[in-house]
Amino acid sequence: MRAGELAAEFPVVSLDTPALEAAKLLADQNLPGLVVVDERNRPVTILAGTQVLRMIVPVYYQDDPALARVIDEASADHFTTELEGRTVREVLPDEWRDLPVVEPVATVLELAAVMVRSHCPLAAVADTDGTLTGVVTLDGLLDRMLAR
Amino acid sequence: MRAGELAAEFPVVSLDTPALEAAKLLADQNLPGLVVVDERNRPVTILAGTQVLRMIVPVYYQDDPALARVIDEASADHFTTELEGRTVREVLPDEWRDLPVVEPVATVLELAAVMVRSHCPLAAVADTDGTLTGVVTLDGLLDRMLAR
What's this model's pTM, rounded to 2 decimal places? Predict the structure, then answer.
């Protein structure tokens, strides 16, 4: 089994997608992460769920959970206002890691190694020209690896 | 809304659970990760899905995906043999990170900050004596944060 066969359709967002819409897509469909593509359907970045969450949580709370502890629920609306009116491009993390993208001929083991290295529970499968052909999730991959 | 109210039941494993059984639990129930508890039901560690995957993938492939690329499918059985006969204790990652564990009074924002910091899409909620009372998943948390 190769990545090309394991890859399935998966919702994508673009750099111009409203950030709030992207976060809602993740939450509503219980996705393990998001694939951001450019106008030619090439993966630009792939975000693990925790990276999407990071876009919502103000930086000063990330650095100091003790501060987050004292925020009362009346401030809950601040979460979404962090995203409001902004696009995915505007809230992307500064830090760009190794993208979990493989070619369709990648083996199951290569997929696994790529997910482990990127700490990302999904990997994009892209053609040699970079076009996204599908996504393999960690769950889908484990199902395959553990099948006997 | 506090962590204690958001927390839901979640399957747990112990340090003595066979590693293969733990990996299958994650795959079969599409869990975002695993909570490992001790004999008194206190969280010992919490593993993101990619950390469970890491337990399966031989280290030399993790370090060199190009090596993984040349492995043919006939070697697929090597995955599970990495785990066979071993317990969770024996395959736990050496590196212990900040555990995403919060008290029941933790706010939604604190939960989010803890998940972001630990890069883990689930957080355990434990009483002051350390006993696990439930788990909040990233999806469950996002649903709450994005609700209007």
Answer: 0.89
The verdict on a CB contact (< 8 Å) between A107 and B141 is no
3-state secondary structure of A10: coil
Q: What is the SS3 assignment for B30-43?
A: CCCEEEEECCCCCE
SS3 of A28-92: the string is: HCCCCEEEEECCCCCEEEEEEHHHHHHHHCCHHHHHCHHHHHCCCHHHCCHHHHCCCCCEHHHHC
Distance (Å, rounded) from C-alpha B28 to C-alpha A127?
30
CA angle B48, B53, B58 (to 5 degrees): 140
What is the per-residue pLDDT across B4-18, written as a single tens digit (0 to 9) for each?
A: 999 999 999 999 999
The reply to whether residue A116 touches residue B80, judged by beta carbons under 8 angstroms, is no
Q: Are A56 and B145 inside 8 Å of each other by CB?
A: yes
CB atoms within 10 A of CB A113: 30
- What ipTM did this prediction achieve? 0.88
Choose the mutation target among A31, A50, A70, A111 for the interface with B, i.e. most B CBs under 10 Å: A50
Looking up tokens 């070619």, which residue turns up? Answer: A103
